[in-house]
Amino acid sequence: DPTFVNKHDAVEPAPDPHKVRPLTADDFKIAIGIERFRCPEVLFQPGMIGVDQAGIDEMVSISLRRLLEDESVKERLCQSILVTGGSSLFPGMIPRLESGIRQFRPYLAPLKLVRAADPILDAWRGAAAFAASSKFGKQTFTLADYREHGESLFHRYNIVYTL
Description:
By secondary structure, the chain is mainly α. The chain has helices at about 35-40, 55-65, 70-80, 95-100, 120-130, 145-150, 150-155, and strands at about 80-85, 115. A two-stranded parallel sheet has the order 1-2.
């Protein structure tokens, strides 16, 4: 190639000393606008990012509706819904989730959400304790079992009553 110039032969122009300035604290600042509020809102409105599914509040309500026909069990569960995981640490997450669930519950129905003591690790600790218990082998099933039997598998294993 007649226009090829070897890197070692090429002379790079030195930067103009007048255009280079020292970095300041302003150079390392990131301006956060509404993103701070939109990120957690995706949990409630997945459609914001093009995901066609229910939000977390609606999923809880659907789970409660499908849970049992026995209203006394639903009422008892609704009086102590445990919210765990790192997302529960978002400011205002618990009140926002509670107001979303209330929209799907009967008027003035009791509802209480409780944040786990250690939201990041409590779910893992609970799963580890369950895996070590004698109930684990009796109340677990494979994905193939679930695909074959569907939701009725939960009732057959009586998982709801052992929570």
